[in-house]
Amino acid sequence: MSEIRVLDQKIANKIAAGEVVERPYNVVKELVENSLDAGADFIRVDIFDGGIGLVRVTDNGKGILPEDLKNSVLRYSTSKIGSIEDVYRINTFGFRGEALAAISSVSDFKIESKREGFEAYELTVEWGKIGELKPGCCQQGTIVTVKNLFENVPARRKFIKSFSAEQREIVKFLKVFSIINYNVDIEFYSDDKKILSFTKYDSMKDRFIECFGLKDVSYLVDKKDNIELECILTLPGVQRNRKDMIFVGLNNRVIKDFSVMQALIQGYYRKLPQNKYPAAVLSLKVKPEMVDVNVHPTKMNVKFFDDREIFSTVSRAVSNHLGSLKLNESKENYSYDISDDSIKYVVEEKRTVYSVNIDNLFETEEIQNESVNEFKIIGQIFDSVILVEIDSELYFIDQHIAHERVLYEKFISEAEKTSIKIKLVEPVVIEVLEEDKEIIIKNIKNFEKIGFDLEDFGGNFVSVLSVPTSIVHKNIENEFMELINEFHKNKNENLLDSLSITMACKTAIKAGEKLTDYEMKKVVSELFQTKNPFTCPHGRPIIYKMSKEEIFKKFHRL
C-alpha cells in the first residue's frame, strides 16, 4: 500500500495559506500590493478586530475583467507570466498565484471589480468553495473583503496576537509602504475609526515626516549603473537603541533584508556611537533580473544576484551623503533640530599657518576672521563644557570631543600633505609582535601621513626615525604601541583612519582643562567648519542645545 499520497486540493490550499498568510498583516500586504500593481493611486484599508473579523481593501486601479474573476482565486493563476523567462523579469510585485487562493481558502471572501468599459461583477469564496459570478455595483477598481480569517483553521488562530498588536503591525506596514509609494493616497480605518490618511506627495521626505514625526532628516537620491536608491535618513543627532526604525523597500515593495540594513548602518560609521542606530527608509530600484523575489512565499525576503554590489552601493551613498551635509544649508536640506528653526551661523574660511619652533616645538594656528561673531562664547562650565549662544539657542559643547573631531578631520584631510614631524637625534627601536610587524611594514606610508617615519630594523623590531610634534616629549615607545593596540581594539581595517582617531583623541584638549576665551572661540570656530560637528570619530554626541523658549519656560516667562 502506498505511503505517499497527493494531498486533497483543499488541504493543499490551507498549507499554502499558512505559508502566505500567517496573520492579518499578510492579508493587508498582499492586497495592497495587488492594488498598486493594478495602477491604483488611491487605496483604502478597513479592518475590524485587528483584521481577524474583517480586512477590506478598496482601490481605484484598472479593475479585473469579468471573465478573469474566477481565475484570480485559483492557485498559480496570474496575468504576469507567459513563459519561464518571465519569472526572472517581473516588474510588478511578483507572480505567486496562491495569494488570493490561499486567503480565500481560510476566510469568508468576496472580490468585486470593474474595468472601464465593462460592467461590475463580484465573486464570493466561502472557505475555498468558489461561488457563482454575479453582477456587482462597485466603481472602477477592485474591492476585496476578507471576513473571519482562520475561522476554519482554529489551530492557526491560536498564534494570532491581540487585536491591538495586529493593528500596530498593519499601521507600521502602511506607513512604510506609503513612504516608499508617496505618490499614492492611502487611508486606513480600524473599527470604523480613521487611523491614517495620507494624501499623495511629490516628496518622500514630506511623507516620512508625516508618518513618523521626525523632522531632523535628510533626503538622499543616488544612482549607480543599474541600482537606484531614494532614502530618508535621520541626522546623527537621532540615536536609537534598536534597529526597529530602519526599513527597506525594493521596487516599491516593503521587504526585510539584513544585508541592505547593515549597509545603511555601515554608512553611519564614525557618525553614531557603537550600538546606536538611525531611523531611515531606503527605497531601492533594480532591474528585475537582478533579484529573485520568489524565494519566500510572502515575498518579504528576496535574493539579490550581486548582493556585494548592492551592499557597497548603499553604504557608499549613505556615507558620502552624510559626509557632504553642511551646517549652513537651508532647513529643507539639513534641519538638525526637531524644532522648526534650522541651525544657522557663518564662520568664514580661515587660513591655517603652522610653525615649528625647535626650542619649544610649539604649534600655532592663525584665525584670520576673528571679527566674525555669528556665535557668542558665554564661558566654560566644569572646565569641560563650552557654552555658546547661537540664534536664540544655547549650545553645550564638550571641549574634548569637539577638539577631537577637529583634529581627526585635520589628520584625514592633510594625510596627503607634508605632516609636521620632528626627526629624532637617535632613532627609537621598538620590539613588536610578528603579526604587528607585518601590519606596520605594510602601512609605512600611512604612518608617514600622521608624522611617523619608520624603518624595518630586522627581526621583530622597527626603528622610529621621526614622530609627530604632539608626542615628542612623551614616551615614544608607549605612544607608538598604543596606536597599534587601538587599531586592534577598534577592529578597523582602515589603519590610517584608526591612527587618525587615536592621535586626535590623544592630542585633543582634555576635559578638566581651563580654556581662555580665545581657545574656546578657536575650538568652536573650527568645530563649525568640520564635516560632522555633531559626533566625535567614535560616534559620541558633541553638542547638546536648548532653545531660548525652553530656558524661559523654566522661569515661567512664557
Short summary:
With 558 residues, this protein is α+β, with helices and mostly antiparallel strands. It is built from 15 helices and 23 strands.
What does this structure look like?
It is a single chain. The protein has 558 residues and is of the alpha+beta class. It has three domains: 9-198, Heat Shock Protein 90 (2-Layer Sandwich), CATH 3.30.565.10; 204-324, Ribosomal Protein S5, domain 2 (2-Layer Sandwich); 345-558, MutL, C-terminal domain, dimerisation subdomain (formyl-coa transferase, domain 3, 2-Layer Sandwich). The chain has 15 helices and 23 strands. The strands form five sheets. Strands 1, 2, 3, 4, 5, 6, 7, 8 and 9 form a nine-stranded mixed β-sheet that branches. A five-stranded mixed β-sheet has the order 10-11-14-12-13, with helices on both faces. Helix 5 packs antiparallel against helix 6 (204-212), helix 7 packs parallel to helix 8 (307-324) and helix 9 (399-413) crosses helix 14 (517-527). The chain is elongated. The relative contact order is 0.09. The model is unreliable at 80-84, 86-97 and 328-373 (pLDDT under 50).
